Amino acid sequence: MTRTMNKTRAALTACLIAMLAGPAHAASGWGLLNMPEGVTELSKKIYDLHMMIFWWCVAIGIFVFGWMIWAIVAFRKSKGAVANTAMVHSTRAEIIWTLIPVVILVAMSVPSARVLIDIEDARNTELTVKVTAYQWKWQYQYLGTDVGYFSTLARDSNSARQLQSGVDPETVPNYLLDVDRPLVVPAGTKVRLLLTAQDVIHAWWVPDFGMKKDAIPGLVNEMWFKVDTSKTGRYRGQCAELCGRDHGFMPIVVDVLSKADFEAWLAAQKAVVKQAAVAQATPAIS
């Protein structure tokens, strides 16, 4: 018996040490259990709202279960407690247990409504991109310019996913999460997306942006995001609406550049479009 207890104690100690092993373990284990904070203005507001509601729920749970456990222990049969079968009415108690939930719900609903209003507030946007979803690719058009292109699954991922391709998916970087041409946007800029679809319902979703919006044929949906200036880099997402047999093969990649780098990229894209237009307009010499 003593040996078994020692083994159990050692196993519990090892589990505790593993859980507290450090930041690296937390990031790959317990850190993934919570909602990500994201890199945009909206994602941070949504995360703060999520944590506020979470701690309210924790406090309510501690109070309710604490009171319940105390009642079970304090009024157990072994201490001589006897059940009272008579119904006792208390107007004061009913008022208290009605008012407290009302106050809690109001305290939750006011900040929730503020965040919902912010999510729908697409005023004063600095860049608008029309996003059209197809089976199974995305089309990006920068409104006010002639720049536009399709974004499809990267060639190496597309080759590896084929039946009997002979390619080990583990050897493909960012397998099924990479594209040939990513969406490019500037950091520190309020970007508005106008989303629609040409065939079936799709959904544009990048977890680090904290936003997801359906792309519906015949309808234009709107969403916006503003990435922190210090959070330039590459962010990945996927279509989040079951849209057909290749639904899992239309990822989303967004390259967030500094404003200066974005302006340089946009100017280069405009030059390419202009050269293509000139070449198309020039008659062929026979």
Characteristics of this structure?
alpha+beta, 20% strand, 286 residues, 6 helices, 2 domains, Immunoglobulin-like
Report a brief summary of the structure.
With 286 residues, this protein is of the alpha+beta class.
Topology (SSEs and partners):
Blueprint: H1 2-19, H2 23-28, H3 41-74, H4 91-120, E1 127-134, E2 137-142, E3 148-151, H5 155-160, E4 183-186, E5 191-197, E6 202-206, E7 211-215, E8 221-225, E9 233-239, E10 251-257, H6 259-281
Parallel strand pairs: 1-5, 4-10
Antiparallel strand pairs: 1-2, 2-3, 5-8, 6-7, 6-9, 9-10
Describe this structure in words.
It is a single chain. The N and C termini lie far apart (98 Å). Strand 6 and strand 7 form a beta hairpin. The chain folds into 2 domains: 69 residues, no CATH class; 155 residues, Sandwich (Immunoglobulin-like). It is of the alpha+beta class and 286 residues long. Helix 3 packs antiparallel against helix 4. The chain is built from 6 helices and 10 strands, in the order ααααβββαβββββββα. The protein is elongated and about 100 Å long. The strands form 2 sheets. The chain has a 5-stranded mixed beta sheet with strand order 3-2-1-5-8, with no helix packed on it. It has a 5-stranded mixed beta sheet with strand order 4-10-9-6-7.
Name of the level-1 CATH class of the largest domain? Mainly Beta
Count of distinct strands? 10
Helix content: 40-55%
Radius of gyration: 28 Å
